[in-house]
Recover the amino acids of this structure.
């Protein structure tokens, strides 16, 4: 992604864009850290694979933070530790929920992707480098949503979205895996 960013002009960010980057950096860490915890509990490949992808996504958001000289809220934070109290509480809750059963763990995964998509869609931007980053994150979240939905189906369960619309969810799961620089 660095090469793509280098080809785009830097902009003057709005306060909302700065706040959005900070939030997305910690949300990507949240997803990574929850999936690491759930993989340790359930030893299911989907958690390991997606935890790795979330690390890549978090690194991509960090590139944007660095580009604009914004301090990284995740710097030096251990797995499961967040500077944002809301995300700290959410992490604890999601790991607790996901530890009760495999289906609950997969539902937590789908819920995280559902939340990520809603948050990204709530942060429209015309700033080219941020739009590129958010587009890559959205593609990754759609792919992860497909993977968790498939695993839920294999375990006799379904997912009902709570953050995006049912129509948006149905379109995502009906679609094919998407390819791009961040998966």
């Amino acid at each position: 992604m660095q090469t793509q960013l280098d080809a785009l002009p830097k902009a003057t960010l709005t306060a909302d864009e700065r706040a959005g980057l900070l939030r997305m950096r910690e949300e990507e860490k949240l997803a990574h850290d929850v999936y690491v915890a759930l993989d340790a509990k359930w030893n299911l490949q989907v958690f390991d694979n997606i935890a790795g992808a979330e690390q890549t996504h978090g690194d991509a958001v960090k590139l944007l933070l660095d580009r604009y000289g914004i301090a990284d809220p995740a710097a030096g934070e251990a797995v499961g530790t967040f500077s944002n109290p809301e995300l700290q509480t959410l992490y604890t809750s999601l790991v607790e929920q996901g530890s009760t059963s495999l289906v609950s763990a997969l539902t937590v995964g789908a819920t995280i992707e559902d939340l990520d998509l809603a948050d990204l869609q709530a942060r429209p931007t015309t700033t080219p480098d941020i739009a590129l980053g958010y587009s890559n994150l959205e593609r990754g979240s759609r792919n992860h949503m497909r993977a968790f939905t498939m695993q839920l189906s294999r375990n006799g369960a379904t997912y009902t979205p709570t953050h995006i619309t049912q129509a948006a969810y149905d379109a995502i799961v009906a679609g094919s895996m998407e390819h791009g620089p961040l998966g």
About this structure: The domain at 12-174 is CATH 1.20.1260.10 (Ferritin). The chain has seven helices and no strands. The longest helix spans residues 15-42. Residues 143 and 177 are 6 Å apart (CA to CA).
